[in-house]
Design brief:
The protein is mainly α. The chain has helices at 16-45, 49-54, 62-68. It starts with 15 loop residues before the first helix and ends with a helix. This is DUF1127 domain-containing protein.
């Protein structure tokens, strides 16, 4: 015979350590995405206008390109 405990109020929820681990993983992911955008912005900013034109960008596109890489 199977028994199912219905008296536990936390049944099916995540424990405290799981929530802390998820929060830490989320923060690390956000930090990594921010750093990738920063590196992209710096790399594109170091190019000359001619080099940017060769890849189909203008200087005003740099922030948009770097921001589009961020996915939270």
């Amino acid at each position: 015979m199977a028994v199912f405990d219905t008296t536990r109020t936390t049944y099916g929820s995540h424990g405290l350590f799981s929530r802390i681990g998820g929060f830490a993983a989320n923060m690390i992911g956000m930090l990594s995405a921010w750093n990738d955008a920063r590196v992209t912005r710096n790399a594109l900013s170091s190019l000359t206008d001619r080099e940017l034109e060769d890849i189909g960008l203008v200087r005003g596109d740099i922030d948009h390109v770097a921001a589009s890489r961020i996915t939270y």
